[in-house]
Amino acid sequence: MLTESERERYARHLVLPEVGEEGQEKLKSASVLIIGAGGLGSPVSMYLAAAGVGRIGLADFDDVDVTNLHRQILYGTSQVGQPKLSAARERLHDLNPEITIETHETAITSANALEIFRGYDVIVDGTDNFPTRYLVNDACVLTGKPNVYGSIFRFDGQASVFYAPEGPCYRCLYPEPPPPNVVPSCAEGGVLGVLPGVIGTIQAIETIKLITGIGEPLIGRLLLFDALRMEFRRLKLKKDPNCAICGEHPTIAQLIDYEGFCNPAEAGEITPAQLAAMNDPLLIDVREPYEFQQGHLEGACHSARSRSGALLPLRIAKRIRPGDAARRGVSPREASQGWLSRVAQGAAVGRGVALTGICGCGAGSVGG
């Protein structure tokens, strides 16, 4: 039953015949888990809180950074440096004190995902990395939960609802992840600040439709948004009978190692520990100048790419002396900058230098 204060708060919902008091009571009784309190998680959580979803869970482990503020509208300048979840809880409670906010200040992993997911009706994927996306998908399939998916990059966005009992899952669309480091992150490729507002709002709408049973959810459809052309397109998706987790003969019956699945160990990479054990390595840092200025390994030689990337091999070659051929070269990089490392490796091969990359130097966030 709705209280009088709730009837007043949700008055504009109650006059909608498709929602009404019955639909609002469904929202009040529902629970939604949002993975990532970032660019997508911000509008999703705010609109679901405002709509009266009774229990909202937030999973994230980052602190608010000033670079978040151009797109993550949950936070303000005064909250920079604070844990995201404490700042988010305060904002959402202020927006709607009638609801419950639960926080999971931890990484969602194969060890805890199933237990956490079982406590919610709908899962919203607001992540920005492939290992977590595959983890969220598989956990949703194994627990029978709908996965409200969204992703953003530069000026483009995608949204869908992956719900294995009724349609395809994420693996039906993307059976295998892209090669490691081929797809840049938002930190690397950039994102228009308002874009997550568009996609996140669509995710909130789809979540409300699933809870109330109104309209046609994006099950079996992928919505594509191009902000520069202000154009929406829809693609039909079919369930893959050979899908590894929701197909006719699934091969995945439990959660796996998703870091290993999406980022298998590559030849030509070493760990920081292996670097420390090397004798006088030649260090070449191929990150952007501002990244190099923020911090770099002692003795590293900086050789950044131009805007086109075309000058990088020449710059690398000029910095590798013939006398270095007997030494083992190492290219330190952020994990998300692997494609730069590969260019650097190609530039060094012709000069007889074994150039490798340091793996595990970067740390990605949960939500963009």
Description:
The longest helix has 18 residues, at 195-212. Helix 15 links the parallel strand 12 (329-331) and strand 13 (355-358). The protein starts with a helix and ends in a 10-residue tail after the last strand. Helices cover 34% and strands 16% of the residues. It has 15 helices and 13 strands. The model is unreliable at 305-340, 345-354 and 360-364 (pLDDT under 50). Helix 4 (41-51) runs parallel beside helix 5, helix 4 crosses helix 10 (195-212) and helix 14 crosses helix 15. The protein has an eight-stranded mixed sheet, sandwiched between helices. The protein folds into two domains: 4-262, NAD(P)-binding Rossmann-like Domain (Rossmann fold, 3-Layer(aba) Sandwich), CATH 3.40.50.720; 269-358, Oxidized Rhodanese, domain 1.
Task: Describe the structure in brief.
The protein is α/β, with parallel strands linked by helices and 368 residues long.
Note the topology.
Layout: H1 4-9, H2 11-14, H3 20-29, E1 31-35, H4 41-51, E2 55-59, H5 84-95, E3 100-104, H6 113-117, E4 122-125, H7 130-143, E5 147-153, E6 156-162, H8 170-173, H9 186-189, H10 195-212, E7 221-226, E8 231-236, H11 258-262, E9 269-270, H12 272-276, E10 282-285, H13 289-294, E11 301-302, H14 312-319, E12 329-331, H15 338-349, E13 355-358
Parallel strand pairs: 1-2, 1-4, 2-3, 4-5, 9-13, 10-11, 10-12, 12-13
Antiparallel strand pairs: 5-6, 6-7, 7-8
Helix pairs in contact: 4-5, 4-10, 14-15
